[in-house]
Amino acid sequence: MNTPRTIDHGPARDLQPFLPVRYINSGSTGISFIMETFLQTYGYWDILIGTFLEGETILVLGGLAAHMGYMDLSGVILSAFTGSLCGDQLFSSWGAATARSC
Description:
The chain is mainly alpha-helical. The protein has helices spanning about 20-25, 30-55, 55-65, 75-95.
């Protein structure tokens, strides 16, 4: 099984998890560095929220990220399953509650 890639940021610093811009300002730039940092910071939550709202496109992108080694495949599968299950249940019950009788 592939292990997710890690980014070596040098010595440990006090980094806040919701401010990935601090990684970018630390000297390394480039779109690949930005995407790696974003995926490692928010990847599984993005898969969960994306499959909750949209579905298949986000799942394909999560599979691609797992294939490239940025994320773990089992984490992608679990996040996608949870997001799509919750989204389907919510939208189904919402539709049933607001349905008009013919």
